[in-house]
Amino acid sequence: MWITMDDVLDLGVPGPSGNENDTYVSNDIIYKVNNLFNTGSILRLLDRIIWHNNLFYETSYNLYGFTGFEGRTIMPVLQQRLVKDAVPATTVEIETYMAAIGFTKQKGEGRYTNAEYEVWDVVPRNVLRDKDGDIYVIDAEMKRL
Description:
alpha+beta, 2 helices, about 140 residues, 12 strands, 4-stranded antiparallel β-sheet
């Protein structure tokens, strides 16, 4: 589905934006308009989405559509369930969670590996803890080993 740039604001209330995503919140969904800055291509982004969904299925992404400036850019629009009543997880909570799902901490903040993946940028701004203490990785960089 193509979403015109004029209609992007209809996705929801603008939320926090980062290096690669502008976000829009609507009820239980967060939409992320991805500028491909970190991945460089749609194919690499889709690979990363598949890997994220395999590792962190509780915060899985769906491809909602595309937007951009006709003839100049295409930006995928991703959809993810909103984690409500959450706060950034602490570094200790993140390390404990990543160890529990089979990852080993590496040198460098927020960097982990297992036999199949290297995951980084797993830091408090990208990991949430809900009121029940459950941990949710909402955004991370990764590659297959």
